[in-house]
Amino acid sequence: MIADPDIARAFETTWPAAEYMRVGGFEVGRGKGGGGRVSSVRAVEHDWDAGDIARTEAVQRGWGERPMFRVADDDTALAEVLAGQGYRHGTPTAILAADCATLLAEPIPPMLAFPLWPPLAMQRDIWSAGNISAARQEVMQRVDLPKTALLGRMQDRAAGAAFVALDGPVAMIHAIEVVPALRRQGMAGWLIRAAAEWAQEGGAHRLALAVSRANTAARAAYDRLGFAELGGYGYWSKD
């Protein structure tokens, strides 16, 4: 899914499941409502056994979660087996990264974005009003790495929030949410630059993120900021 080992590691460690279980060549994540990334199965060995798929289903159903796999775009072998077992493909997602120095070529205006931990109530309210539920916010609490919650301000009010965590030379930004009335005014871009600044101060030199391929507006904005695609994946699920 991601050829770069540092970004591949940070992709998992900066947004972790509540627990993991190894089933043959697969790793099963228990998300507890925290979204597909932490509530899915992924191949961690090339020599996985197709018979293990039923075992992963049993684990997920035992946890009260729907059977779901996170499959790299280039893993056609696993995709074909899942399709044959009644799984359906959805939510194609791209993984992007940019150099922090590139993102910081344009200085961040003062008083526009602040790193804070733990998050303030206003940040949690912004997330909750968007697509970042309490269960997704709980994922942030589980991260055992340097981390922060960014608060963006615009027009003298709280305008956006994001979460960023750092694993060695790579930081990943998650849960970018902007107040609806203040969207399309550049707030998301400033949050990303603030994440790059925080990451660089912590010793990282690259910032990565995941974005749905259907979100063409966000993807275009990331391209303008200097992000490049490193890989992609999709979710395969069944009822």
UniProtKB/TrEMBL annotation:
Every N-acetyltransferase domain range: 106-239
One annotated GO molecular function: acyltransferase activity, transferring groups other than amino-acyl groups
SUPFAM superfamilies: Acyl-CoA N-acyltransferases (Nat)
Coiled-coil stretches noted in the UniProt entry, renumbered to this chain: none
Pfam hit, one: Acetyltransf_1
PANTHER family: N-ACETYLTRANSFERASE (PTHR43072)
Protein name as catalogued: N-acetyltransferase
Classification of source organism: Bacteria, Pseudomonadati, Pseudomonadota, Alphaproteobacteria, Rhodobacterales
Underlying gene: yobR
